[in-house]
Amino acid sequence: MRFKVKERSTDRAFREYILKRDEYTCQRCQRTYRQNDCGGLQVSHFWSRRHENTRFDPANCILLCFGCHMLWGHGDERQAYIDFMKKRLGEEGFELLAARAHEYKKRDDRLDELGIKNLMLELENKRLKADKKFWISLTAGGNNY
To answer: In this predicted structure, what is the pLDDT of residue 141?
Structure first.
């Protein structure tokens, strides 16, 4: 019997992080959605959200469109999802993720909220560094815009 895991405010914040990290693109079919029209995208948790220890673990989650999520997350192509995750994380990373998923973690919404805010800041800093590198390369190349 399946049961639905209740969505929390931290789930919504984490979804925003994954949307930005994966650039509004399904990681299976590579279809890209517009930022203001991304309702067809879902955060797929390799280890389900009921595993509290990996619920907000970026290594555990990718963006999938509804159709791809039904195939990989809930359908006949689970092995393809396993293969994808092993390639993405490496064998050791995949095994470590499985170990984390099966470790007990007490729910702590405040700590999870802080962790998600930190992930968002890291992502923003990464983007700013990439932008800075881009503009430096333009000026170093003699292009004075």
So the answer is: 66
Cβ pair 56, 14 in contact under 8 A: yes
What is the pLDDT at residue 89? 98
Q: Which residue has tokens 């619920």?
A: 55
Would residue 117 count as lying in a domain? no
**Average pLDDT value over all residues in the chain:** 92
Is residue 136 assigned to a domain?
no
Q: Could you give the number of structural domains in the chain? A: 1
- pTM recorded for the entire structure: 0.85
Listed in order, strand segments (DSSP E) in the chain are 41-45, 61-65
Range of the domain at 61: 9-108
116 Cβ contact partners less than 8 Å away, ≥ 6 residues apart: 10, 13, 14, 17, 56
